[in-house]
Amino acid sequence: MLSFWEQKNFLHYDLIVVGAGFTGLSAAIHFKKKHKKAKVLVVDRGVFPSGASTKNAGFACFGSLTEILDDFWTMTPDEVLHLVEKRYAGLKQIRKEFGDQALRYQHRNGYELIGAEQLDALEQLSDINHLLRKLFSKEVFSLVKDPQKFGFSDTVKAVVKNRFEGELDPGAYLNALWTKASSLGVRILTGLSVVEVDHEEGRVLAEKKDKKEALEFFGERVAICTNAFTQKLWPSSPLEPGRGLILLSKPIDGGIPWKGAFHLDRGYVYFREVEGRLLLGGARNKDFEKEKTTDFGVNPVIKEHLNRLAQEVIFPGRPVEWEMEWTGIMAFGAKKSPIIQQIGKKTAVAVRLGGMGVAIGWQVGKEVSELLSDL
């Protein structure tokens, strides 16, 4: 039961954003910057973003060598180049907007482990560098002269370095977004699950977590930025959820002899050092079908695969004990490019980040805010 004052002040907005992750907050911030007097509301079912924004590994990356080569099976060279450009430009934008200190950004380079079955990829390294020179004006990928220095197992035949990649703290990034949104007067409500959006009228129906009370909000414009959880609000969405598991070890005895953002297996597996611990995640390609889910459970097949990589490849002969594990839910589809489009008179979507929300979420949010400004 709402009071007169609550109905008058808290239910009507110029823009309602569903989803309080990197993309949703970016959409709200950019809209508010352009329309300073606008009333903007962001709602999310969780206290923290529900998908992957603060559950990812914190890689400021745009694609490893074998991942980019893999993209050529489904994309043209121009499409691949445009995708890399979008990702790298997004990383530069958030660093410029918030600063490396606020993001806890560290430029420690990216690396990819190459096994015997992937050595053919090295023959195309110079071709990929030539393609990417249009964007970077410098060589992106290079072979590490002494790959044994990392201490990996002898199954790692080569290591490829990417001089343009780094790492950040996803929680620090979210804090920076919260601070920016708050300073602009954006209102953020958490613990509200949006169950229905009227794309034509801008009516947003939300339930409290206990489902004992429903609230009806009304927006002149609505942005749906719920990524993998969009199906309920846009039933015809061409999205496929993809769960990602992350393991965090206890401090590694004897320390970790390397720094940087590491990839292997066409980018499906990734690891880095975090405060003397091993953060290791990914490998959804080992059980694609079961990982097409919005359930935050842990797949034992994937956990065992990651554990084996830690014990046999990353730290061969050294014990690794896990302290934490969690999963995040991403969204994929037939193409890797994000979907930014109008789906009703008052509604637009910004979804399908393809596991690259850190890199492109800020720009995708900006683009959907511009689309909504024109409605």
What does this structure look like?
This protein is α/β, with parallel strands linked by helices and 375 residues long. It is built from nine helices and 20 strands. A hairpin with a 5-residue loop joins strand 11 and strand 12. The mean pLDDT is 96.
Features:
globular, 2 domains, 375 residues, D-Amino Acid Oxidase, Chain A, domain 2, eight-stranded mixed beta sheet, 20 strands, alpha/beta, six-stranded mixed beta sheet, FAD/NAD(P)-binding domain
Assigned CATH architecture of the largest domain:
2-Layer Sandwich
What percentage of amino acids are in beta strands? 25-35%
Radius of gyration: 21 Å
Structural shape: globular
CATH homologous superfamily designation of the largest domain: D-Amino Acid Oxidase, subunit A, domain 2
What's the CATH topology label of the largest domain?
Answer: D-Amino Acid Oxidase, Chain A, domain 2
Counted by DSSP, the helix tally is 9
Spatial arrangement of strands, main beta sheet: 6-7-5-15-16-17-14-18
**Largest pleated sheet:** 8 strands, mixed
For the record, the CATH class of the largest domain is Alpha Beta
Distance between the termini: 33 Å
Number of strands: 20
Task: Write a short abstract of this structure.
This protein is of the alpha/beta class. The chain is built from 9 helices and 20 strands.
